[in-house]
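Researcher: I'm preparing a figure for a lab meeting and need a structural model of a single chain. I don't have an experimental structure, so a prediction will have to do for now. The sequence is pasted below. Please return the structure as tokens so I can convert it later.
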Amino acid sequence: MTVFKIRINGRELEIAAREGSVPTILDAANQSGISIPTLCHHPALEPYGSCRLCTVEVEKKGRKRFVTACNYPLEEGLVVETGSEGVLAIRRMILELLAARCPGERRIQDLALEYGVTRPRFLLEDESCILCGLCHRVCSDLVSVSAINAQNRGVLRDVDTPYGQLSEDCIACGACALVCPTSSARRRENIYPLLASDISELESEFLDGTIDGDLGVFRRMFAGRSAIEGQDGGMVTAILLRGMEVGLLDAAVVASRDEIYGATAILAEDADSIIEARGTKYVRISVVSPLLEALHKGRKKIAVVGTPCQIRVVRCLQKAGYFARRFPDAEIYLIGLFCFESFDYVRLKSHIDRLFGLDLAKAGKVQIARGKFFVQAEGRKYSCRVSELGELVREGCDYCGDLVSRLADVSIGSVGSPEGFSTVVVRSLRGERLLEGLAFERQEVRLEDILKLAAMKKKNAEANFAPILAGLEGLGGDGLASGNSAICGRSPE
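Model: Understood. Here is the structure written out token by token.
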């Protein structure tokens, strides 16, 4: 262990560091109870130094200069002043500029007042983003999704999705909203951050039934098997075919097999397309583009079949009024699939080839059950433990704690059902409409199996979110720091 002897504000300090690591001035100040303001810093992310608010004055070999405390490494004998006149003048100027840029952001205005900035001398703008970089860094560096990023230069610099379009990659995990020091992440239409409070609001607005802390809102639950050959009980296929037959649906967004990517989202507008898309694909797809395609083609009754993250995205867009403003006559039905995790198809295909000598693209059926990954091909069944596939899991799945697609109108999966059946969770009146008149065999669900797996997924997500939430302790702002992510949250009972 290395010990640095330094002086901060006249106090002699000894700062211990693990071998191979060098603390920063900010680390030393935090350890010693010395307050240095920050906006762009989060301990779970690499120091960035973009906001400059943590500026301090250092003296080294008789020379003084101003540096950012968050990324300036400690040196033996370093002398630091955190509240000199020069430091305070720099912080006041930064906060004056930010207060003019973001006059409606409480945390910025509170910090400005703390430093005596009451009325900025600069032209007031109507911005919420301070370009601190926290949102896109947590998205790329921790969640590994990279749904948003910094773009452009100079005065045109901004944080946005590619081409400013609705994101095809966002999983609505809420990480960007949690770390954002302003309301900027919450105000963007093309990404969909969800916090626990948002989940409750969405359940109240779109669903109708009993509220359970682990399963979400539901009206009824059963194991069902249709006469249609499909994954397990073939219930998704049966629902879609019946919906089209009776005129309840005129299109459906489903996953179709793709030899290169494993699966791709398509717009199914007839029974043949739906039948062709049967079977589970353990690959995350994007549903936004085909849904918009259907709406622009004039389709008004559309079912979207997707995993929990895809269902969250559509619900967020509904909540924001995106579809209502542009397609007021549209009826969107959400069929959510149970999902513990999805896989990178290219790596999964290569792994299955090495393990079993099989071409995954030609497999008749792929299934996860009882902790194992099953592949059926050429009349034989192969399996390996799911835990062996950890390196193949898609980015972002570790931050999702929703097993049962709790925001869907109907949720369907194999967990908790007898062999050859599907667990069906009806969550809304719209979901009841999808099942109305549908012929199927019914059995009881093993609820304990669902609860056990749901608890495991939630626990994993909470563990991954822990460093993010730990870095927010004591922060002010708009109440986001004290909230929780959507996937870690629990609906009120």
